[in-house]
């Protein structure tokens, strides 16, 4: 599969402009990561006729979920892979930071993973996305713009600059800035310490019902590549597993999976959004337009179609003919890409003849 992509990616990626600077913002302390007791697992709600749904996955649950969303900045440097806790996120946003890197904003509500990380520093546009779900925002470090927002109380947050070695722990098996982790237990401890309310669930997203799922239309999308740069290090290849009816994600030829359990990230919705990006300083920091709306691709159940995206109360959502498009119940990954070069040059479909 990846040999086939190599030929495609060379032609596609030469058209894409990359930046040269890498992000080196981090604190340097290193402490060994403490063991954390296992959490009780969330009910697997693949069973039918459960009375409630998790608001960000649409998956059934036996009891109403009132947990506040938690949004965590997760490192995607090759030295930080594989990450911990990523497979349990309800929604993951992937956006450019400085240089030739992307970072993840992982939003948790239906599950509370034992350990999450490596944690990375805040940027203003990630904060805006976290705010859209009224999340508690978790990061380690910040840009000047992000620090100003956090200092002014724009969003409830816990930052490793303040809590390094207490709530945030340093893993011995990686070097800074790729070794900061936090447990969900410590997230809740920090929220209590700061008197943050954690019992207010985000508003529910729109999900497809059984009949709509059976009648999904679109073109074949069994294997799709999203490329950001002229190398494979930060591309994403989504392979549809027809038996599981979910997408698996690969980067640089490696399956995206949990560091400890090796459980893969399994996705039900891939949403690829193009929007204006602008480099605003000598460090390569960016301004990303998350409000204007525009073109997007939506991948579900092995099919894709072109849609629009809109910012609805801070959330980036798919729209078809002016109406919010339903999501397949499950987990969602959102790639936000520059409008230059745009969708056609960034996204490649491997169509079997």
TrEMBL record:
Residues 1-25 form the signal peptide. Keywords: Lipoprotein, Signal. InterPro entries: DUF3048_C (IPR035328), DUF3048_N (IPR021416), YerB-like_sf (IPR023158). PROSITE patterns: PROKAR_LIPOPROTEIN. Residues 56-196, 231-334 form the DUF3048 domain. This is Lipoprotein YerB. The lineage of its organism: Bacteria, Bacillati, Bacillota, Bacilli, Bacillales.
């Amino acid at each position: 599969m990846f040999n086939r992509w190599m030929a495609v990616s060379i032609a596609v990626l030469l058209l894409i402009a990359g930046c040269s600077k890498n992000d080196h913002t981090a604190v340097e302390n290193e402490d060994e990561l403490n063991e954390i007791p296992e959490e009780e697992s969330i009910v697997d709600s693949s069973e039918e006729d459960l009375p409630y749904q998790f608001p960000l996955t649409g998956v059934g649950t036996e009891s109403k979920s009132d947990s506040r969303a938690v949004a965590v900045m997760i490192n995607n440097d090759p030295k930080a892979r594989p990450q911990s806790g990523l497979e349990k996120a309800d929604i993951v946003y992937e956006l450019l930071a400085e240089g030739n890197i992307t970072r993840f904003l992982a939003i948790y509500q239906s599950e509370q993973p034992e350990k999450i990380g490596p944690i990375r520093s805040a940027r203003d546009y990630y904060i805006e996305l976290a705010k859209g779900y009224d999340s508690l925002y978790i990061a380690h470090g910040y840009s000047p713009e992000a620090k100003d927002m956090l200092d002014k109380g724009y969003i409830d947050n816990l930052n490793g600059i303040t809590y390094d070695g207490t709530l945030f722990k340093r893993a011995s098996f990686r070097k800074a800035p790729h070794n900061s982790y936090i447990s969900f237990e410590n997230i809740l401890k920090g929220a209590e310490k700061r008197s943050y309310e954690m019992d207010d669930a985000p508003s529910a997203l729109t999900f497809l019902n059984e009949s709509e799922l059976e009648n999904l239309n679109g073109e074949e999308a069994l294997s799709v590549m999203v490329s950001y740069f002229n190398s494979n290090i930060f591309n994403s290849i989504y392979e549809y597993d027809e038996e599981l009816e979910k997408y698996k994600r690969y980067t640089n030829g490696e399956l995206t999976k949990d560091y400890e359990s090796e459980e893969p990230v399994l996705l039900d919705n891939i949403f690829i959004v193009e929007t204006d990006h602008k480099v605003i300083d000598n460090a390569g920091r960016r301004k990303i337009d998350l409000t204007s709306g525009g073109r997007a691709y939506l991948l579900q159940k092995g099919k894709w179609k072109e849609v629009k995206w809109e910012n609805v109360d801070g959330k980036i959502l798919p729209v078809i003919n002016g109406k919010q498009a339903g999501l397949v119940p499950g987990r969602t990954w959102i790639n936000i890409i520059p409008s230059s070069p745009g969708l056609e040059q960034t996204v490649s479909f491997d169509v079997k003849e």
